[in-house]
Design goal:
This protein is α/β, with parallel strands linked by helices. The chain has a single domain, classed as Alpha-Beta Barrel (TIM Barrel). It contains 11 helices and 12 strands. Strand 7 and strand 8 form a beta hairpin. The termini are close together.
Length: 246
């Protein structure tokens, strides 16, 4: 089970949101590259970046901070990024700059042809992001609720050739109430590609619960607010996950 620290970027800072609400923001660092270095020093084997401003605007907005993170740790660990990625040129630019994976969320829902093209052009580097609330997919930085069932889109995205899926229940995100395990397992059972859990991770109990269902196709989990507030010690949590999974 891979534990992946999240670095959510808003106005050049590392922040955390509650339930995907851009108005409920807590800033944790004004130096995202230093935060990236911290998590790598703690044993992170991958980093998860989100351009929050980009997700809302539909185009990249925190490229300077993203490039600083790549320059700091990009040669040491894979980095995945989502938020505001709407065209092939942006994907190519990010991958050329040193990112390992690009996450397509809103554009995958609104323009599935784009996702298919991206998977074909950048095979092995495209992850689909499924942000949902009560089983329905949300778009535009979690601000809009679509009529799509998350399980239906998961199957479609697999067919298009995505490398993996990230499933986040935004109703649980940033609330430190635990992962929506049932919904995550339901998604993982519908596809053969890896699923990465996200939203609500709070404690070692959650890590142990995820490890218990890892054989359903859940390969990792995004770690957010809990590792920033100290509710979850990242290095100890990754060690525990490694111990359980052997």
């Amino acid at each position: 089970m891979l534990l992946i620290p999240a670095i959510d970027l808003k106005d050049g800072q590392c922040v955390r949101l509650k339930q995907g609400d851009m108005q409920q923001t807590t800033a944790f660092s004004t130096a995202p590259a230093e935060m990236a270095r911290h998590w790598v020093n703690q044993g992170a084997r991958r980093l998860h970046l989100v351009d929050l401003n980009g997700a809302a605007a539909g185009k990249p907005k925190n490229e300077a901070a993203i490039r600083a993170i790549i320059d700091e740790v990009g040669e040491e660990v894979p980095i995945q990024l989502g938020g505001g990625i709407r065209d092939l040129g942006t994907i190519e630019r990010y991958l050329d700059s040193g990112l390992s994976y690009v996450i397509i969320g809103t554009a995958a829902v609104k323009n599935p042809g784009f996702l298919r093209e991206a998977c074909s052009a950048f095979n092995g580097h495209i992850i689909a992001g499924l942000d949902a609330k009560a089983g329905k997919v949300t778009t535009d930085g979690w601000s809009k609720l679509s009529g799509h069932e998350a399980t239906d889109l998961a199957r479609k995205f697999e067919e298009y050739g995505c490398e993996a899926l990230i499933y986040k229940d935004i109703g649980w995100d940033g609330m430190l109430q635990g992962i929506n395990l049932d919904a995550t397992v339901q998604i993982a059972q519908k596809v053969k590609i890896p699923v990465i859990a996200s939203g609500g991770l709070a404690s070692l109990v959650d890590i142990e619960a995820l490890c218990a269902v890892a054989d359903q196709g859940i390969d990792g989990v995004i770690c957010g607010r809990a590792i920033y507030t100290g509710e979850l010690a990242f290095a100890a949590a990754q060690s525990r996950a490694d111990e359980i999974r052997g």
